[in-house]
Amino acid sequence: MQTTARPPSAEEAGGRPPDIATMRSGVRRFLAEDALPPGAHELDTLTLQLRGHMQLLIPEVEQIITRLPEDDVPRYCALACVGEARRKLDVAPRPGLSAGIAHARRMARSLNALCDHYENFSGDRS
Fold it and tell me: In total, how many domains does the chain have?
C-alpha cells in the first residue's frame, strides 16, 4: 500500500491557525446585502486577498478531513468544496469591472464555504 504524505497544518508547522474572522471580513465585502461595489483598483487588491486566503485555507481543510472516514458524507462535501475552490483559483476573470466583481463574488462564496468546513471540522469558531 502506498501512502501520500500530507502537508502539515499551520499549527503543526509552528504557525498559527488560519484567521477565519479576517477571511470572513473579506467575504462580507462582496456578499453582504449592503456591500458597495469596489472600484477597479480596490477590486484587484480584494481579489488578490480572496485568492491568498483560499490558497491558505484549502490545505488546512484538506488536512482536517483526512482524519474522517472515506465514506463520510460531510468529508465528501468538503472535498467537493475544495475541488471547486481549486477550479476557481484557476479561472481568470473576464475583462471589465462587472465581470471582475462577479468573479470575486464567486471566489468569496467558495472562501465562505471553506471557512464553514474549517470551523465545522476543527471546532474553531473564530
Answer: 1
